[in-house]
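Holo prediction. Input below; ligand is S-adenosylmethionine.
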Amino acid sequence: MRPNSVSSDLPVKPDLRALPPGLHFVSTPIGAARDITLRALDVLAAADVLVAEDTRTLRHLMEIHGIALAGRSVIAYHDHSGPGALQRLLGLIGEGKSVAYASEAGTPLISDPGFELSRAVAAAGMPMTAAPGPCAAICALTVSGLPSDRFLFAGFPPAAQGARREFLAGLAGVQATLIFYESPKRLRALLVEMARCLGPDRAAVVCRELTKRFEEVSRGSLANLTEAFSTRDVKGEVVVLVDRAPPQTASEADIESALDAALTSMSVKDAATFVSQTMGVARKIAYQIALTRPKG
Ligand code: SAM
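Structure of the complex:
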């Protein structure tokens, strides 16, 4: 470990020193309660105001870790709580209070509430921090065995078949590992649709119940996984990951027009890198063609 790469003052007991005023996002476990971070506990112990998507879940988590409410109530808030609730929280931060916000599980804003709050606090120029921690998408990517150099978190696909097909078709060419959240009830239908829209041979991974007792990681092609889950009733929570699209066989004319567009705002080097990554062509080839194009 590099020296000074992490703070060394890690008290075992919660740190009750005052938190600075502002909004403090707190990531919470996605399964194993011990995945809470010491800093998350510090924030929960010291915040003037506790706010949660689900007040019972936060109270329970604090109880498990011995963090006293100390007379504080827990305010319920999510992105649809309305402008009044949002203004109330902004008002509290404006008065100099430290406000801790936790969603039901994992990292706030990641397919969870918090975005409207984050946007409003940023727009108001108020202070904001995050105590980072568990996130199912990152946990799944870590154990998937799929490339992690570039990934696209796609959230929950639409439930309606037409919209879902369109959504998947729009992601078919993306040169990045794709990460989806899905309800276990819709997993089978999603895999069928993915094999159809993204191709049956693409490598994919289904991660179920991460960090929990029945954690399971299934790897295979989309065709294999569709078959494997065709007769199983899946329970629990799942993340589905799909490998990037195979390199495209773009024509020289396609590469030229992509480079011409990129060269209007980028240097030759950057345009070649951009086109090579987005079209899946070798950078050397993109660079050689870029050198022959008029600078935009
Ligand atoms: N904010 C959370 C995060 O940081 O991952 C995600 C919340 S979202 C409402 C819930 C979805 O996350 C589930 O439907 C599932 O797709 C995924 N998820 C959450 N916990 C999980 C777990 N332990 N194992 C697998 N997937 C999980």
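The pocket of S-adenosylmethionine is lined by residues 30-31, 103, 105-107, 110-112, 135-137, 181-182, 207, 209-212, 237-239 (CB under 6 Å). That is the main takeaway for now.
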